Amino acid sequence: MDKAFELEIVSLSFKGTTYRVKNKSFPEGINVTDGITVPKTTGLPMEKSTPFFSPGRDIETSMTGSFQAENSFLAANSVKTALIQGNACPGDEIYSGFAVEGIASAKLPGRIEYHPASENCPAMIIDSSHTPGSVKKLTDTIDSLGFRGKKVIIYGSVEGKEYRKMCDTVVKNFGTIIVSRPGKFKKSNPEEVYNYMKGISPEGTCTLLETEPDKAFDKGVKLAGREGLLVVTGSFYMAGEIKKIIQGGFCGISAQ
Fold this sequence. Notes:
The chain is of the alpha/beta class and about 260 residues long. It contains seven helices and eleven strands.
């Protein structure tokens, strides 16, 4: 299906993403104005869906990743569409100001949440990806950021998730992998995950099992080194376990 808009990534860094509307295509049977899609069956006049985020305008978000750009754009336009249909839109200029400010200040803890290197810890990304698609977006984003140092990952997933597909992506992108237990709130089987991960790891990959999150974190910090990057992913629970550790003061990181 054709998209109602396309976004061009202007800049991408650990501090956030800047994007702009590049161009648009118009699906058959849909009225589209700057990403606002209004089915003709609603009878909503086109003049009520006036331009928002005009092509060429740069939009900044503190969240990292091309997918975050698209998500924020869709969210802002979806809210505007709902306001229009409810005859509650305050007007393009006012709404646009609210939306741009909201997108710029929005944060999503645990989704490519970046922490710069500190005296005791390497740079870190805390991520709650728990599906094959979201893990792939995580690794694609890290590649896009151009990090060339040593990359170490702590991976832990709960039962019921497609861990094999996620592991397939992990082993293609990390040379050092630590499988751990994502807490005890939900059932998990880190030994099973480790055995699969170890079995598909390319030759030369360092694949380790450390079920206790605090020990996995300590090992990850040492293996990454001061110039490396430590990534945590696999589930909300794995991200939460590591965040509890780093917020305890070991890395000099405050809560987000």
